[in-house]
Amino acid sequence: MDKKAVSVMVDGLLSDGILTVSGLSHPGSEAVRGRRCELLAINGDHSAFIGIDLGATHVTGVLSDLAGAVIERAYFEVRPGLPVELILDQMKSITARLLSREGETGGVRAVGVCVPGFVHPAAGVSLVAENIPGWRDVRIREIFQSAIGRPVALEDASRAFAAAERWLGRCRGLRDFIALDLGYGIGMGMYAAGVLHTGSAWKSGEIGHTVVDPDGIPCACGNHGCLETVASGRAIARQAAEGIRAGRSVLLRDLTHGDAQSVTAQDVALAAGMNDAFSTGLLQAAGRAVGLALANAVNLLNPSVVVLGGGLVSAGSALTDALASSLARCTMPGIREDMRLEVSQLGPDASARGMALLAAEGVFTGA
Amino acid sequence: MDKKAVSVMVDGLLSDGILTVSGLSHPGSEAVRGRRCELLAINGDHSAFIGIDLGATHVTGVLSDLAGAVIERAYFEVRPGLPVELILDQMKSITARLLSREGETGGVRAVGVCVPGFVHPAAGVSLVAENIPGWRDVRIREIFQSAIGRPVALEDASRAFAAAERWLGRCRGLRDFIALDLGYGIGMGMYAAGVLHTGSAWKSGEIGHTVVDPDGIPCACGNHGCLETVASGRAIARQAAEGIRAGRSVLLRDLTHGDAQSVTAQDVALAAGMNDAFSTGLLQAAGRAVGLALANAVNLLNPSVVVLGGGLVSAGSALTDALASSLARCTMPGIREDMRLEVSQLGPDASARGMALLAAEGVFTGA
User: Fold this and answer.
1) Domain range for residue A133?
2) Are B304 and B174 in contact (CB under 8 A)?
3) In chain A, whose CA is at the least distance from the CA of B299?
4) pLDDT digits (tens, 9 = 90+) for B80-98
């Protein structure tokens, strides 16, 4: 585009209220023929968007303005194994609560919903989420559109996390990066040449199903020895329960009042923080396995940044330190040097925020 | 773009001689308001391009027209370990020979050179190719431009192979696919959303450096236990030499006149075709290892097609059968169903042909 075309476009965005003049450039910097430049910013007050993130253990929601600033948030823990109808009711109730704050915004233009597992964004259907029992072919768009009466966008939760990092986080302006989502499951979102990668059928990013041991235990996906069977929040909890039963950690037993079945990866992180050797060992083994799978992804994709997010990352350094060292060891020299490892600073509502922005993108691009 | 804009653009391409009318649509098909449509094709006679492909064991060259049809080809085996200057002289001599046929074309507009290892296409420099001793920071563009006086494009050989499959082969029109290049080394090219994937620094596609055994033997890249140390043409030859010395294959010993050091992966393929159990076992083990690494790449990238090329693929079915079954076993269900495995039909000059087309693309896009 030539200068004239850009100028016409910017004038249009300003008069539509999508852009706003946020100030003048510093004296001396970015001056054009001696004059200070007007600085432009996205006008958050123009419109607002709701993002809802469903995980295996939580439902998170945000009401966010067009610039990505959060006006209201909601966070609920969910017990794995709840009936699908009840989960959907919870999601709709959170959406309604966020919508009740619409008066403080430029108007809610769309709702975005992200879920784990396979999605079909064009059809608005969540196909399957192995970590949510019974969750199959859930017609998210239909259900939410009739309940809320706004356009509804759908995406994979790890891709929504990547979008959040791209617009609000550590990967602003980057064209090639990987966002790793380490939680109850393990997912990955990535940008390639500035575009959110989806693959041929919206199924890309299944790093959690990297086969790390072809003779390993069965995975929820149907294969054997996937990364998720040894290193996800779910796998860490399973191994911790086995350890409690085998008497390998007095601390974990005490933290769970002896109810081995109820132990979570958060309990393991807590125990590791209290120097429990068994718990520390579990997290280190998980970190090593993730680091190796991630190194292989980095060798294929040559990202400039890998950003780590999800519940397991905020759970202390035993896991992330082991991850970082195995990632460095197994990444090809020459690719390693090009790459920076970062930890997300966006917190637990990163995917919900990213999903709100993807919903906005859908409105403005007509997707 | 609207219909009018497309029509103006097509008229321009027709009058420039880049497009040509190749016929009329079949009666009944693609008719617009009852009239048969003019079919358009790229006009090969418009211009020509040279593609040169340097491998660890060969130099291949093609003179190709704008439509990708080959006018002349050249193929030379190269012994691993030749001095860099001699390799470059060989490449220039092949280029000159192809250029001598220019009179039969619309004129050679550019030369494309592809090499293994890391490249910097914008600078025109081949940074390093671990499988070619001494090959470092070779200023391909400068060297060829001064020798030949035409614009010179540079890319990675596996990406050139992917481009050939995209324009001429099994992946025509596909937006998301993987092209696996199985030769002396193991490389991968891929398209994501219709764009040739490069990563942040042109280093993507290093599937050969997937770590398959962190405690494995040293790799030329500096790491340990990379896929290339167990499954490349180089690794197969190394294991075959060990087998000959250990007396594990009389046939291989006889085929190489007892000179274990001289055995190649082609010898192993030949012996496997003659039912040599040791050779068959080597190729099957290599196929299984490649299949697992490839499954992990497929889980990340969700391609619609994986196309196999390179010298090892044309070497019989022991390797490709084992590859296909390990790929199917380790790919996540749901992603496996979306994917088709194909074998390249483009032959040994696939990368050279792809490189000629990438050089053409560079000329027309001004890259």
Assistant:
1) 47-164+349-365
2) yes
3) A206
4) 788 999 999 999 999 999 9
